[in-house]
Specification:
It is globular and about 35 Å long. Helices cover about 30% and strands about 40% of the residues.
Length: about 80
């Protein structure tokens, strides 16, 4: 199964995350199929950049977003 989830990047105590499409059994920071955007929680306000067209295309193909990614997308849609 294909999942849409976060992978951590950034330095210690300065996290940033990529929103990526991966196979379900891949490691958290392992290889990914597509990078859909990024999320930086340490900025004020929190930064969410997302390729919404690509995200919707992967959802139609059957990719399942994790609960965290789903909530971030809702926040992104409200702010857009």
């Amino acid at each position: 199964m294909v999942k849409i989830r976060l992978t951590r990047t950034g330095k210690t105590h300065q996290p940033s995350y990529r929103i990526v499409v991966v196979e379900e059994n891949t490691k958290r920071d392992g290889e990914y199929l597509v990078n859909l955007g990024h999320y930086i929680p340490t900025t004020t306000p929190k930064t969410i950049v997302l390729d919404k067209k690509e995200y919707d295309a992967w959802i139609k193909k059957g990719a399942q977003p994790t609960p965290t990614v789903a909530s971030l997308v809702k926040k992104y849609e409200k702010s857009a």
